[in-house]
Amino acid sequence: MAPITSLLTAENKKITGTALQGALVDLLDLALVGKQAHWNLTGRFFRTIHLQLDDIVSMARKKADAVAERAVAIGVNPDGRAQTVANDSHVPHLEAGPIEDGKAIAAMTDILESIIRRMRERIEATERPDPVSQDLIIGLTRDLEKHHWMIQAQLR
Amino acid sequence: MAPITSLLTAENKKITGTALQGALVDLLDLALVGKQAHWNLTGRFFRTIHLQLDDIVSMARKKADAVAERAVAIGVNPDGRAQTVANDSHVPHLEAGPIEDGKAIAAMTDILESIIRRMRERIEATERPDPVSQDLIIGLTRDLEKHHWMIQAQLR
Amino acid sequence: MAPITSLLTAENKKITGTALQGALVDLLDLALVGKQAHWNLTGRFFRTIHLQLDDIVSMARKKADAVAERAVAIGVNPDGRAQTVANDSHVPHLEAGPIEDGKAIAAMTDILESIIRRMRERIEATERPDPVSQDLIIGLTRDLEKHHWMIQAQLR
Amino acid sequence: MAPITSLLTAENKKITGTALQGALVDLLDLALVGKQAHWNLTGRFFRTIHLQLDDIVSMARKKADAVAERAVAIGVNPDGRAQTVANDSHVPHLEAGPIEDGKAIAAMTDILESIIRRMRERIEATERPDPVSQDLIIGLTRDLEKHHWMIQAQLR
Amino acid sequence: MAPITSLLTAENKKITGTALQGALVDLLDLALVGKQAHWNLTGRFFRTIHLQLDDIVSMARKKADAVAERAVAIGVNPDGRAQTVANDSHVPHLEAGPIEDGKAIAAMTDILESIIRRMRERIEATERPDPVSQDLIIGLTRDLEKHHWMIQAQLR
Amino acid sequence: MAPITSLLTAENKKITGTALQGALVDLLDLALVGKQAHWNLTGRFFRTIHLQLDDIVSMARKKADAVAERAVAIGVNPDGRAQTVANDSHVPHLEAGPIEDGKAIAAMTDILESIIRRMRERIEATERPDPVSQDLIIGLTRDLEKHHWMIQAQLR
Amino acid sequence: MAPITSLLTAENKKITGTALQGALVDLLDLALVGKQAHWNLTGRFFRTIHLQLDDIVSMARKKADAVAERAVAIGVNPDGRAQTVANDSHVPHLEAGPIEDGKAIAAMTDILESIIRRMRERIEATERPDPVSQDLIIGLTRDLEKHHWMIQAQLR
Amino acid sequence: MAPITSLLTAENKKITGTALQGALVDLLDLALVGKQAHWNLTGRFFRTIHLQLDDIVSMARKKADAVAERAVAIGVNPDGRAQTVANDSHVPHLEAGPIEDGKAIAAMTDILESIIRRMRERIEATERPDPVSQDLIIGLTRDLEKHHWMIQAQLR
Amino acid sequence: MAPITSLLTAENKKITGTALQGALVDLLDLALVGKQAHWNLTGRFFRTIHLQLDDIVSMARKKADAVAERAVAIGVNPDGRAQTVANDSHVPHLEAGPIEDGKAIAAMTDILESIIRRMRERIEATERPDPVSQDLIIGLTRDLEKHHWMIQAQLR
Amino acid sequence: MAPITSLLTAENKKITGTALQGALVDLLDLALVGKQAHWNLTGRFFRTIHLQLDDIVSMARKKADAVAERAVAIGVNPDGRAQTVANDSHVPHLEAGPIEDGKAIAAMTDILESIIRRMRERIEATERPDPVSQDLIIGLTRDLEKHHWMIQAQLR
Amino acid sequence: MAPITSLLTAENKKITGTALQGALVDLLDLALVGKQAHWNLTGRFFRTIHLQLDDIVSMARKKADAVAERAVAIGVNPDGRAQTVANDSHVPHLEAGPIEDGKAIAAMTDILESIIRRMRERIEATERPDPVSQDLIIGLTRDLEKHHWMIQAQLR
Amino acid sequence: MAPITSLLTAENKKITGTALQGALVDLLDLALVGKQAHWNLTGRFFRTIHLQLDDIVSMARKKADAVAERAVAIGVNPDGRAQTVANDSHVPHLEAGPIEDGKAIAAMTDILESIIRRMRERIEATERPDPVSQDLIIGLTRDLEKHHWMIQAQLR
């Protein structure tokens, strides 16, 4: 079965594919960990953070879909299975069980910063190989940085 | 930090909590594996199955959320992290890379049947301990069985 | 051509299939007879009953679809052809030609009561064989009994 | 109870009423048989035809309502009861049980052609007696012929 | 100031313009008289007729607009001023002051029949001169006859 | 048939009823004359004024309805028949036939000013007799003055 | 805990607060008694009055909310608890059990008139102390009087 | 005046009617007390709890309506008048005047727990007498327990 | 590959197919030329004509689709490729580059008149061969003539 | 260039114009300062106040537009340029840079109170000169006082 | 008539204008050829490809509009007339008459690849001359490549 | 109080922050000056420009919000207070009082060109320091240039 063809060179396809697969794992794990905190949250700030986390999850799911479909469009098969996310993710760990609101904010700030750091490297990496994929990553990085600010502002 | 209280006895809470946590893992893995097939699908039937898989993912996400919120409402903390899903899931494995349409239909039929089998056990298990949780599981089993039919009908 | 498989035993599938096929015939005939009265109605109360009958038809069509799709999902082929409805229906007969509003209300009260009586038997019959199908029949019986009250209240 | 009056002569009312009653039976049977195939369909093309059949049923129901209300508006009581549809319909027969996708397309092509043939006769028959009813039949014939093309195109 | 030009001959324009101007006066007066009854209605059937009259007014206004814009499109200036409607209308008279529900139904039945009679003459008159205008009048006559039935059904 | 009762004294009811009936005639005539200009308009500014006139008509119709329903609510039967509007209206006359855009703007400015002048008198007249009706007239006067400005601004 | 401050003098706040608290009790009781009749209604006019009562309840709830929030905005704590409504309400009593349609209309006419009478006193009482609150009461009185007319019209 | 008939035995009707009437009083009082806290709330968490309380009130009103209509549908007249709610309610008391946010959360947790306890008894009581009513109570109990968790989580 | 069958005779199919193919070319060219003027427009009337042209394009595209689908439904393959439109169109030519508003209105008036002239011939040509296709052409001619008036009115 | 004319006397126009221009500056500055706090907010209450401030800004912008359009409608040109707002505003000053949530609430309470104080003076000033403008200012003062309560409640 | 001015240098305007005009021709031809296939399609996969082609046409039309408006915004007049598209297009040719589904997919894959190849050259060409235009072309290239994947996947 | 952190270097943050603050002042002033012209406009072209200015204001407000939130997301506090806008803006001055339509178009063309010139410098300035912010500025520049064309086209 021949793969989907695209106009990228093999080298550019490889670099871009790696960036997109990395972004996919980051975004899928963000969605899972965001829901985990959304459900197990406790504390006086429960309701507002519960809603805020759902905004983040919703954004992460939408962008994960765009990233995966971009990968296959350039001829690279994305891998978003649970095992792959569990093994490859660099998203900071979240403990099981109830999560106090203050801890949830601190953890989410770290998680978003960690993902943003990798996304900024992917923006650089894809600039020449594929400006079309780069543009997608630039756009989702703006969303991630907006949420990073709105979570972090609660720690100031 | 005291857990969320509910009116279930410790025994009933344990049985119900186990059923809900099992359902959560099944539904989250269904959503991940459904998206995996949605992205990597190939073949003449690509478009219609691509859309059908998104219907399944959308249902799985919505029901996973309801199940996890039901668990915390009875005082049991749900666990939906990538590592937990990867370790605990009994959902049949899906290979990485491109998936031909015929194989995707066959795989999805097996996956749904496997989940439905466990859900029917959970309906029985929760009947006496918590009819409120049982009612939720009955409802989502109807959705799963409807999708099972609509996928399986393509194999007849 | 192998039938759709489900996890019900042959015995349970037969009992549940019979209940669902019976419900389907009742609901399709309710939709046809409801429209018949909706069109041929006369009398000072024309407009309000004309609209009320459309609410009933709309509910009957939606539930008939759910019931038929439930039947096929458990591996039983539903039969909703005109001949089958005409032969198998136990819904009380409605004369052709113009229908006075008072007679329409009385006829509709009888029709709904007749269907509800059979639905309540189906709730009992399916409780053990298939609680998932039972839950569907319980839900539509509530709708039928609500309409039965709102029609019947006009006779008090 | 005096019938609804209209401005048509007795002769024109009779011709037009016959055409509308015939159209009503055709459309109601189309809706029933369309749902029958929608539920019992099997085969690789299941999903796309399942949806297509619902488009046809939805159109048939809407037009049946318009036709029946047109009949009563000219003083002719329409008859859409199950027995009448079963007895008077000339729509080709559909077997009970599972229907393979290829057979469903072939059957639906025949059914639509059969109905269209009668509708075209009704367009001619009503031209002078009642151009208002004729205009309604012309409009629904266009819808029927559009669906006939879209079903039939799958056989080419 | 040169008038709007159209492709109709002077003769056809004159016949069609007369039909459209007549239809306009009928529809504007129907809207005014419908509102008059809508406001001044009394009796046990107040609410349902109050709403029904608004449906008629809404239809009359929409069709009046279509008819007037059709007139100007063929180069005939429509006249819908109060004085013109008051002088030229053949719509049966409605007394000032409170209107009992039974009388409102009877009056509205007469009014609609009177308008329909003239519309049917306009359908004949415009058939050859301008089938485009005729098609518009056929369509609105269907609406008028539907409302005529639904009002009149309350007298049976 | 006893009239609708309200809590206003006979004197206050009479004053308020007169104000509301006057407002009704003004608003109904505004709607008719607004449509007349909307249809017969010519000139380079056709499209923008054509749309602006429809905004005015739409406001006039809505407020006429509110005013008439207010009248009947205080026990005064409103009269909005064509003959009454034709006889009682003080709205400046509009010639039949095509209307150049500049003339339409000038005429509409005069018409709105004429109506506003009477509405302001009604605000004063109803202040003590019925502040509830006054509030309605104040509100619609604001709408009239807004449209007066937007029409008049085209003359500056 | 200091109360919410506002710019009204103590005297004006007291007068306005009394008016708003009285209006709140009236509107909450209207909503409860409206639903009571909505549920227990019988008779040939069941459906239309059932719907009409829901319109009244919906208006009463919306306005009760506005009135209570207005009270707290001027520094007066509203009291809308069941005991307070039961003790302080002057709304005429409604018997338990089934309510015939004619009796429901008569009772609702009395109830609305009783509330309107008190609202008109509150309009006067608040004119100088707080025109902002007065404007709110004027607006809701118009709604109450509209419903009073539409209920009462059925008795004429 | 004969009561609405249903297919329940007298004994089952009585048991079910008692459960539904009890649920109605609980839900109506929840709606009133929820609004009371919504209006009189103070403290840094004002806005988020203000909104959360409105979600609860909205759910309570919708379910109260469903419960009352279910009662009348089985032939039992519901009683939702202020006096009945004030006398029969077992919902914990709420003080008049301003309510600090912490106290509001604690009070609401108690109120919801108290209602849930009674609802769970009603689920048991209605299981055999009327599974249709039971299904309604199961559904609303899930909503109540969800809100109980989301309120209570703020105390952890 | 057998063509789509229809019930028209070969002769009627040919006449109707020619009319529909001609209409298709006219409408596609109208959409292209309308957009061309929409983009390149200049002058004080820019904004209102820019919007008006988009209304025309939107209508033309929708009707072109209906016409092409009608052609294939009667068994005639429509041809809407650029080369065909360029070669077969009789729509008056539009110069490249900026278009002054006055010129755009004059050109559009000519273009619409030219298309309407051909459409009226097609209405006559299809009357006997296929009243269903004729009805479609009558409907779109009304739209074309309405836009012709609204464009032309700016030249008066 | 002659100004827009209105029916107010020169004296009344001057008084009303002054009130409206003052209100405009207040509302525009409220919108700017509300956004400033919305962006620069920090602290644990970030999210809920961030959203609350946007509600205030949205209301301020809508009312500023209504006030400015009211001014021009009575013949007074409003001035909402940055320089004018900066020079004429009496809204309390807000420091640049990050704003802690507690400070933001305190500042917003002062700002709203300051604006409300001036609005209440404008209500008095415009009562006789122009009750139409007064009604607009009364309405927006109610909105301002509602937001003042909801902000201030967080300080209690 | 002076052209629209922009801030681009003559050189940059020329390069960017050439890229945009080329993109316009590609997108307009894609829309025409996509509709051509949408109408003339045959084969078992008719319905799903028929719908997919409409998604492509809809995207192509929207982007063509954006590209043309971008051209005029930088001072270059776009040319989208039929003759220009027919002469200048490099989009692969499509035969007239019926198109089998397999051929349609193959043809569309070639067409999209051909357009994407030119778009990628335009991305490079416009990077320095006008990053604003480049960003538009990058965005639409992502859409084209997504559709290219979804069409091509059916060939794997 | 520590500022919001981001991953930009101090140097890059400074450059980007300066660009964003400049863009914010430009966009806020554009919104204020756009409304100023929207309100004070006069002349025959009043209505169409009045609406066009609102489109520009709406775009300016939305983009100002995005720019300010981007600034704070990278750790730079935006300043959008009236005094800052008044002092720092380079947007060309607009006279107070009535504005003739021709002058408004000329002024708006200058204002938009002036802002676009600065935005293009910011696109260059931010390319290396922060491609994420640059992408935002590129996007809003496209909107500004589109409006610049549509305003300027009226001068040609």
Any descriptors?
homododecamer, 156 residues, mainly alpha, two-stranded parallel sheet, 5 helices, 2 strands, DNA starvation/stationary phase protection protein (chains A, B, C, D, E, F, G, H, I, J, K, L)
Structure description:
- The structure is a homododecamer of 156-residue chains.
- With 156 residues, the first copy, chain A, is mainly alpha-helical.
- Chain A has one domain: Ferritin (Up-down Bundle).
- Chain A is 73% helix and 3% strand.
- The first copy, chain A, has helices at residues 10-40, 46-73, 82-88, 101-126, 131-152, and strands at residues 41-42, 99-100.
- Chain A has a two-stranded parallel sheet.
- In chain A, helix 1 (10-40) packs antiparallel against helix 2 and helix 2 (46-73) runs antiparallel to helix 5.
- The model of chain A has no long low-confidence stretch (mean pLDDT 96).
- Chain A binds chain B through residues 1, 3-4, 28-29, 32-33, 35-36, 39-40, 42, 61, 64-65, 68-69, 71-72, 77-87, 89, 94, 96-98, 100, and chain B through 1, 3-4, 28-29, 32-33, 35-36, 39-40, 42, 61, 64-65, 68-69, 71-72, 77-87, 89, 94, 96-98, 100.
